[in-house]
Design goal:
The chain is an alpha/beta fold and 397 residues long. The chain has two domains: 3-39 and 289-393, Aspartate Aminotransferase, domain 1 (Alpha-Beta Complex); 54-285, Aspartate Aminotransferase, domain 2, CATH 3.40.640. It contains 17 helices and 16 strands. The chain is globular and about 60 Å long. The mean pLDDT is 96. The structure holds pyridoxal-5'-phosphate. Pyridoxal-5'-phosphate (PLP) binds next to helix 5.
Length: 397
């Protein structure tokens, strides 16, 4: 493999990625390459990462930066156990297990199956789930995105194999809110099928957790499908504004993961100060409010109102949007045009990324806008106006 040639090819195909200098002010603003801009690509959806109460609590009484050890060696700080108890309560599951990142939590799917299992995976699942499938050595069946009929077809097609060897485990895995399409999995329908075909349902709700549902337990709660979900995977570096990942499920699943999950065992524990930050943020997601137009709103309600406002403004200006949530993908198509779009937005003081292959399919490049609870109305109006100017310049609208 010639790295220089491959890199040249990436540039020619408009698929080259480069690092920018980004200093976050809060979830709505940043200084990028020395310029203050509106930030539209943070996953800190509720703005908790810059919350003073969270920061103060995280760094109070710090005696070490990290436990510098695996959980099973000397890394099991009581703050992690406390956090796991609170996360299990949050998810209404028996137990939870914290991982150093959400990516590593997703990879743990590989530990829950073996080479005799079958995994049914949504075609748009996140790279971390795809990697887990590959690592697992299980048979992989990919179903059409959020398509219940396609999932049923796959379940039916393999029922000959599974009835002849009933010990073969069947696992359906999907995201809750899809990270690059901004839509919600039809968990009620998918859950029903899982019951019918005796399959385990695993949901990675990294982008819906702490936001949706009346107790902010995420997409499954919002869809009234919690009873159908066996294992929930999530990240604490999105709406919780912290860092790390976790899995919630039955006592047996968590005990099993402690004993078998390589991304839990063979790596250092999440530093306790991040666990403290997450504990405080978990309290705040229950009562966190923000002032708007003289009224006080829950952070989640403000986020959803912001998302609705920006979605309506962009759609009415003629943009082709995907999904229905706070993740607002503006479909562009061509990779070169998407890059140009992002670069022109930056010139107008808006920082957002062009999402291209292999994160999404070739020819379906998009600007992935994520609004947060901290964006104010003026900023969002300005964003819609600037998108309109750039969209017209590039003949997109
Ligand atoms: C669906 C999904 N799962 C897992 C992850 C990984 O989470 P983390 O950033 O905590 O590693 C992401 C990150 O973007 C994601 O979108």
């Amino acid at each position: 493999m010639n790295y220089a040639d491959e890199l040249k090819q990436l540039i020619e195909q408009n698929l080259y990625r480069r690092l920018r200098d980004v200093r976050i002010i809060d979830s709505s603003r940043a200084i990028v390459d020395g310029r203050e801009v509106i930030l539209l690509c943070s996953n800190d959806y509720l703005g908790l990462s810059s919350n003073k109460e969270v920061i103060d609590y995280a760094i109070s009484d710090v005696s070490s930066i990290s436990q510098c050890s695996s959980r099973l060696v000397a890394g099991n700080d009581p703050m992690l156990v406390e956090l796991e108890n609170r996360l299990a309560e949050h998810k209404a599951k028996d137990r939870a297990l914290v991982y150093p990142t959400g990516y590593m939590a997703s990879l743990a799917i590989a530990a829950l199956v073996d080479e005799h299992s079958i995994i049914y995976s949504d075609e748009l699942n996140h790279a971390s789930i795809i990697d887990a499938c590959r690592l697992s050595r299980a048979r992989i069946k990919v179903f059409k995105h959020n398509d219940v009929a396609s999932l049923e077809e796959e379940l039916l097609a393999s029922s000959i194999i599974t009835t002849s060897s009933p010990s073969r485990k069947k696992v359906v895995v999907t995201e809750g809110v899809f990270s690059m399409d901004g839509d919600m999995a039809r968990l009620d329908e998918i859950g029903r099928l899982c019951r019918e075909y005796d399959a385990m349902l695993i949901v990675d709700d990294a982008h819906g957790d702490f936001i949706y549902g009346s107790n902010h337990r995420g997409t499954a709660e919002y869809m009234n499908a919690e009873h159908c979900v066996d294992v929930i995977i999530s990240s604490m570096s999105k709406a919780l504004g912290c860092f790390g990942g976790y899995i919630a499920g039955s006592k047996e699943v968590v005990e099993y993961l402690i004993n078998r999950s390589r991304t839990f065992i063979y790596t250092s524990a999440l530093p306790a100060l991040f666990a403290k930050a997450a504990l405080k943020a978990l309290e705040i997601i229950k009562y966190g409010i923000i002032k708007h137009d003289g009224k006080t709103l829950h952070l989640q309600d403000r986020l959803i109102a912001n998302a609705r406002m920006l979605r309506e403004a962009l759609a009415s200006r003629g943009f082709n949007l995907k999904g229905s949530t706070h993740i607002i993908p503006v479909l562009i198509g061509d990779e070169k045009v998407a890059l140009e779009f992002a670069s022109m937005l930056f010139k107008h003081g808006i920082f957002v990324q062009a999402i291209r292959y292999p994160t999404v399919a070739r020819g379906s490049a998009r600007i992935r806008v994520s609004v947060t609870a901290l964006h104010d109305d003026d900023a969002l109006k300005h964003v819609a106006d600037v998108f309109s100017i750039v969209g017209k310049d590039l003949n997109l609208i």
